[in-house]
Amino acid sequence: MVVVDQLSKSTHFLSLSHPFTIKTVAEKFMEGIIKLHGMPKSIVSDCDPIFISYFWQEFFKMSSTKLQFSSVYHPQTDGQTEVVNRCVEQYLRCFVHQWPRKWCCYLPWAEYWYNNTFHISTWMTPFQALYGRLPPSIPIYTTCFSPVHEVDQQLLSHDDLLQQLKTNLASSMNKMKQLTD
Prior knowledge:
By secondary structure, the chain is mainly α. It has a single domain (2-131), classed as Ribonuclease H-like superfamily/Ribonuclease H (Nucleotidyltransferase, domain 5), CATH 3.30.420. The protein is built from seven helices and four strands; from the N terminus they run ββαβααβαααα. It has helices at residues 22-37, 49-52, 54-62, 79-96, 107-115, 126-131, 149-180, and strands spanning 2-4, 11-13, 42-45, 66-69. The strands form two sheets. Strands 1-2 form a two-stranded antiparallel ribbon. The protein has a two-stranded parallel sheet with strand order 3-4. β1 and β2 form a beta hairpin. The protein is globular.
C-alpha cells in the first residue's frame, strides 16, 4: 500500500500479503500512518473493494476524514501516487534483480530513498518538507569496530547492497546507452 502526503510529497510504503482483509489493511494503516501523522483530513483512493467497504466508509465518517475515489477511467485523479508507484517499482527492480522474492525487505530503503530525493515541485526533499531539516546521512561502513557481530554484519551487508545497486544501475545505464547509440 502506497500512501502519499499531497503537501510534502512524503510517502510510506506498507507491505500487504495476499489475500488481505479489511482488518489487516486497517491495522497496517494504523501502524504506518495514523500513529505517525494522525488521521488524515481527506484520502483519495482507487475503487478497491477494501476502501469501498462499509467499514472504511463508516471509519472515515466517524473520524471526519473525507474519502474520495479516483475514477476508473481517469487514473490521473491520483496521478501523484501513480508517479510514486512507477518510481518505487523502478527502484525495487534495481535492488531485487538477483532476489525477486525479497522485494518487501527493501521497502524501508525505498521509502528512505524516495523521501530523501529532491523534488522539483517543492524545491526540497519530502523529508525536509516534513521535518524542516535535511536528513542525517548514512556513513559508509568500512571497518569492523563493533563488539556486536550482528551490527558489523548488518552494516557490511548494507554497504554490499549499495554496491550491488550501483552496479545494477551502471549496467542498466550502459544497456540504455547501447540501445540509444
